[in-house]
Amino acid sequence: MKIVFMGTPLFAVPSLERLIQNGFDVAAVVTQPDRKSGRGHMLTPPPVKVSAQKHGIPLLQFEKIKSPDGVAALQALSPDLIVTAAFGQILSKEILDIPPLGCLNVHASLLPQYRGAAPIQWAIINGETETGVTIMYMNEGLDTGDIAATCAAAIGPDMTGGELYDKLAEMGANLLVDTIKAIQNGSALRTAQDEARSSYFPPLSKTLAEIDWTKSAQAIHNLVRALNPIMGGIAHMNGETVKIWRTSVERGSALPGEIVSADEKNGLVVGTGDGLLRIEEMQAPGGKRMAPREYLRGKRLPCRRFDLSPDEAGQ
Length: 315
Hints:
The chain is an alpha/beta fold. The protein has 2 domains: 2-197, 3-Layer(aba) Sandwich (Rossmann fold); 206-313, Formyl transferase, C-terminal domain (Methionyl-tRNA Fmet Formyltransferase, Chain A, domain 2). The protein has 9 helices and 14 strands. It has a 7-stranded mixed β-sheet, sandwiched between helices. Strands 10-11-14-13-12 form a 5-stranded antiparallel β-sheet. Helix 1 packs parallel to helix 6 (161-185) and helix 5 (119-125) runs antiparallel to helix 7 (217-226).
């Protein structure tokens, strides 16, 4: 069985590595072009590219794989199966029709729930206690293809988006190998998704990270941990932006955004629409991530409350 693998970020690396470790014939790897990143804006290769080069696998990088050149390159490879994992591009019907065994995708949710580009973060934001991985046959819809296999995973009450990302990446890699072996021996399942249970969530945005202190402490806690480590929660005080990376929920009450304590001894605790939120890790403008107790050592905050909204911060 000849496989073409398509993926881009770290999430896809375990799937590629597991295919190689299990002796599958990965004829080529397709990934996104190198992008500028970091403070120096250095051109950086995608993690999947680094993995492919380490193993000496032929590499294809297209801004749009569905371009005529991209389609021609895939047709020339004549793969039996195409596998995608967090590739970041939509495959055209022309590409989907190339491999006789179809195209499989590793999706980080229990489909049909949490279709879309950021299922890991949205599951945590919404306070889910369970999610999982689905191996699905791709069609022209967005995460709407038939399900080949699923595996459930618990979401801990303080689990971050980064921790769940790593967990599901490994689970997805193992489930992918099992699914392809089942296809080889003719035992693979194929189940249509139940559209009545489907849900879709959009890509993440910077505005999503803005903390609304009128929401409950639990809702804010879920938002902050979901966005750790990709962007963190964003709060404002006197027009300055503070990133919040870790929090915990405490009993008690105070006005939304009101700072209940802010000193080296007691740490930083803030009122919300329901309950108190303890900030465990923060990042002041131009600073590094640190515990509030460390930040507040010999220092005072400029005021006794956080702005309730970005609009208020600009007043």
